[in-house]
Hints:
By secondary structure, the chain is an alpha/beta fold. It has helices at residues 42-52, 66-73, 92-100, 122-131, 184-188, 198-206, 226-230, 232-237; strands spanning 11-16, 36-37, 40-41, 57-62, 76-77, 80-86, 109-113, 116-118, 136-143, 152-154, 160-163, 173-182, 211-216, 220-222. The chain is 25% helix and 27% strand.
Amino acid sequence: MDSVYNLQDVSVAILAGGLGTRLRAVLPDRPKVLAEVRGKPFLAYVLAQLSEVGVRRVVLCTGYLGDMVKNAFGESYDDIELLYSTEASPRGTGGALRLALPMLEPDPVLVMNGDSFCAVDLRAFWAWHVERKAGATILLATVHDTACYGRVRLDAMGRIHSFEEKSPDRRPGWVNAGVYLMSRSLIHSIPDNQAVSLEKEMFPNWVGNKLFGYRNDGALIDIGTPEGYSSAPPFFCERQLEIGRSAQKI
Length: 250
């Protein structure tokens, strides 16, 4: 692929500060990103995916028990330099990203949830975003049952025109896979110094502002619930992802 899509110098932020309330019954003593999966913290799988495409610098947006994340991973993961943006109080996904903005250069920024993983060709995702001159692109995954996610509706060109809230209506469809590309100007438009949700507040507000969805057929895993967490070991067992030397058993 052309060098313009080389990801070595891309800005990457991983949202790793969630409270993990729904997982407390099975994970009472650590943040979700440190949930052990096949002997490694879940975050190691996300970092390994980035390492495979040559990413060299990642900002970890931490909050709840953030010191545990820093103690586990330190200042590097294989060839990736790790930096930390730590919120003093919960700011939500949008607020955490806004706080980290001064550490995120150049443009655009690759943003990933630290408690989910989607099998995707990140270079192809990047190329698709750049070629459309999108303000923000949400990676989409197709699932058989969207009841737990909420649905994303988009047109034939990939422009998102609406989001549907979670509902008991069990249907297949496209859902937010927790991976985004977005311009620094959009991140700058997120209200500062307050709790803001990317998913519930900012994305709906950005509809019509060059907000696109990238359809991807790769499998998605989200460990935000006990059921999702229990399905993680077989999910990664099927995917021979090389886990880096810096991944520690927590």
